[in-house]
Design brief:
The chain has helices at residues 59-62, 112-117, 140-149; strands at 4-12, 15-20, 24-29, 43-49, 52-58, 75-81, 84-90, 92-100, 104-105, 118-123, 128-132. The strands form 2 sheets. The protein has a 6-stranded mixed β-sheet with strand order 8-1-2-11-10-9. A 5-stranded mixed β-sheet has the order 3-6-7-5-4. The chain has 3 helices and 11 strands; from the N terminus they run βββββαββββαββα. The protein starts with a strand and ends with a helix. It comes from Candidatus Mucispirillum faecigallinarum. This is Chemotaxis protein CheW. One of its GO terms (biological process) is chemotaxis. Residues 4-143 form the CheW-like domain.
């Protein structure tokens, strides 16, 4: 039997993405975000979630895709990266996607920056999904900057 991997499927600028479900702690609706001065351009600010300060990153800005207005579908996906909790703003969370490992193709080389954190692409019955390696989206320097906010 083929090995299955599970991903949380979400949308950014009309494109379908997935991140490994094991990195996702929870998904919340948009809340008020407190801006932080001199934060990296992709950081929207911080939130207090049950007594924990969590930096909030607009994944659209980080991945350099079209940023749309937040609406009732906009969500914050809280992920844990090396014991750091980070909230990622996405346009819409869709569903848990189950994909056979053999069905994940290597991403076509598009740009050196994107190739660092796109681990592959997979076709589902509905669409093509870009699989992000969430552990590689942020550089060491960016992770340190995010740490200083929490």
């Amino acid at each position: 039997m083929a090995e299955l991997r599970q991903f949380v499927g979400f949308m950014l600028a009309q494109e379908h993405y997935g991140i490994d479900i094991m990195a996702v702690e929870e998904i919340i609706r948009m809340v008020d975000i407190t801006p932080v001065p001199r934060a990296p351009v992709f950081v929207e600010g911080i939130i207090n979630m049950r007594g924990r300060v969590i930096p909030i990153v607009d994944l659209r800005k980080k991945l350099n895709v079209r940023v749309s207005e937040n609406n009732e579908s906009t969500r914050i996906v809280v992920v844990c990266i090396q014991n750091r909790r980070i909230g990622l703003i996405v346009d819409k969370v869709e569903e848990v996607i189950r994909i056979e490992v053999d069905a994940i193709d290597k991403a076509p080389g598009t740009s050196p920056t994107i190739d660092n954190y796109v681990s592959g692409v997979a076709r589902t019955s509905k669409c093509m999904v870009i699989i992000l390696d969430i552990f590689k989206v942020f550089s060491i320097q960016e992770q340190m900057a995010l740490d200083s906010l929490a």
